[in-house]
Design a protein that fits this description.
The complex is a heterodimer of chains A (about 120) and B (about 110). Chain A is mainly β and about 120 residues long. Chain A contains no helices and eleven strands. In chain A, strands 2, 4, 5, 6, 9, 10 and 11 form a seven-stranded mixed sheet that branches. With about 110 residues, chain B is mainly β. Classes of the chains: A mainly beta (about 120), B mainly beta (about 110).
């Protein structure tokens, strides 16, 4: 079964750091662009970052550029998001998602990041 | 950064009616647009990609069209199970983005 499972969320103080992980199964992970998308409570979806299969290309939303770093380990079928300099505005449910053509066809259930002031 | 504006914010229709949702981009995204359905407590579900291609398992009542800056999602005959938030998303630039969403309700 094709699936993604996120972990690593939690409660962190403003200015702190956190590392999110996403483990993929059921498909050839290295063949796909991967993404992080977040959703603040009661709000819409916000694309955060994308990375291509060999990690050569990485793109970020303006709101996180310079603070967040996307990476992957194809040998471990894993995607990561390093979050630093966190603020309350970063509190959200963070999803990892697989790219397919112009969309994202496989999503995990998300991991929650809470930031206290 | 390309901004996507969805309208209306909320759409309230009776079962069997046609639902038309729009998504406008601040600059051309060619046909690199996808649409998602999200129900409460669930992850988003890809409905259509590349502006008009239906994803696997998506009912035929969902269709989409558009190119450049203007895109439309149509639900031909609304069913109770279609109550959800709907989001458009562009990949016309390396920096992707989502629209603010349209809430579809049953009247």
């Amino acid at each position: 079964e094709v699936q993604l499972e996120e972990s690593g969320g939690g409660l962190v103080k403003s200015g702190g750091s956190l590392r999110l992980s996403c483990v993929a199964s059921g498909f050839i992970f290295s063949n796909f662009w991967m993404n992080w998308v977040r959703q603040a409570p009661g709000k819409g979806l916000e694309w955060v970052a994308s990375i291509n299969g060999d990690s050569k290309y990485k793109y970020y939303a303006a709101s996180v550029r310079g603070r967040f770093t996307i990476s992957r380990d194809n040998a471990e079928n894993s995607l990561f998001l390093q979050l630093t300099s966190l603020s309350v505005e970063d509190a959200a449910l963070y999803y990892c998602a697989r790219s397919y053509r112009s969309g994202m066809d496989i999503w995990g259930q998300g991991t929650t990041v809470n930031v206290s002031s | 950064e390309i901004i996507l504006t969805q309208s209306p914010t909320t759409l309230s229709l009776s079962p069997g009616e046609r639902a038309t949702l729009t998504c406008r981009a601040s600059s051309s995204v060619t046909n690199f647009v996808a649409w998602y359905q999200q129900k409460p407590g669930q992850a988003p579900r890809l409905l259509l990609y590349d502006a008009s291609d239906r994803a696997a398992g998506v009912p035929a009542r969902f269709s989409a069209s558009g190119s450049g800056t203007d895109f439309t999602l149509t639900i031909s005959s609304l069913e109770a199970e279609d109550v959800a938030m709907y989001y458009c998303q562009q990949r016309g630039s390396p920096v992707a983005s989502f629209g603010g969403g349209t809430k579809v309700e049953i009247k």
